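ok so heres the complex, two chains, lmk if somethin looks off
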Amino acid sequence: MSDSDGAGRGGGQRGRPRARGDDPVVAGLRQLWRGLEAEPVPDDFLALIERIESAPGEDAPGRKGGQA
Amino acid sequence: MTRPETGNAGADAAFRRDLVAIIPALRAFARGLCGDRDQADDLAQEAIAKAWAARTSFTPGTNFRAWMFRILRNHFYSTVVVARRFVPWDPEIPAHVQSSLPNQGGERLLADLARGLASLPPEQREALLLVESGMQWEEAAQVVGCPLGTIKSRITRGRAALRRYIEGDAEGRPVPARMTGHAPGAGARVAEPVEA
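and the predicted structre for the whole thing:
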């Protein structure tokens, strides 16, 4: 593989993984990733972040009872 | 309007904002690594908790995404895989992304890709995931802890295997990628650079 095997998402940054525009594998993988990333964040995550936010200056309360 | 943040409080607030912003990508990476959605979310939350506990070791201005992904990846391979908490990948992933599919052909392609991805050796799967997360090759190598050439090799091999899987054999049947039965870096912090 070379650094210039197609158009990447980032507009041609050096070292950026580039994808051939007509490569169904690359396009499909990208779509898979975007689909996963677009899923709504579960409340558990927001609750964890809220616990972090409510305990400034302390280590994070672990999920479900204290693991950090 | 919040008051200006100074000192550690300001750094913590910035760190929390970065954590919140990276949750979707972190969940996607965890899902790609371990498969099951609920287990992936457990993994992502554990990584967030570990990151918060280690926040003072993060240097602001450096690559937060790579730092977080490395925490999650190392946690996955050093703890989770060893404990056999997770199974490889989730063949149902296409069902979760159907809303973004352009057509039936695209839906089938994504389903095939997800199955093909599940059949890849873990080191190729994670390399492809990191690249698709938007990372540069150098960043992906940083996360995995291997030479740049190794990442390039894994991506090349992974994509080629997926193409073979999608195209199928002479009779159109999927050609599964090699199954190694091991995880890269299992029990270790850094994967062995074996493919450069």
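quick notes: DSSP finds eight helices and no strands in chain B. thats all i got rn
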